[in-house]
Amino acid sequence: MKKFFIAIAVMFISFTAAQAQPYNAAIGLEGGWPGNLGLTYKQFVGASNFFDYKANLSLSSEHLSLYVTDTFDWNVPIAGGLQFFYGLGVGAGATFAANTYFLAAAFGNIGLEYAFQKIPFALSVDYNPGFYMDFGNGFHGNFGYTDANVGLKFTF
Length: 156
Description:
This protein is mainly beta. It has one helix at about 1-20; strands at about 25-35, 35-45, 50-60, 65-80, 80-95, 100-115, 120-125, 130-135, 140-145, 150-155. The longest helix is centred in the first third of the chain and has 19 residues, at about 1-20.
């Protein structure tokens, strides 16, 4: 009986994992608050895990920031093409203002994505709370780092 339950559990996990990946990779644009615009490339590395690479530009009246990030995420199917994802990431960049300084960040990633079934596109929304450090006039860190984005990706 124990072997039967183990076999059922393995079949269930295999079926869930097979359904978790809606496509292999995606490339697209995203933008959001606070004044971000970026390119994103998402690559699945397993049935329900992916890397999300981003190159972003953040522009305000006071500064211009350029930075790159990478997150490792877990994908959880909800229904149809709707997916929930969560993960952890790191980033590095530079801010150009009165003084130029370098940035480093560690953050979380949580969001929703809908992959259309009949056309090769996906829409996403994500939120990235975390910690950033800047190396301008001495070291200073901020736990209040947040970033919220809406994206459109071409899937393949």
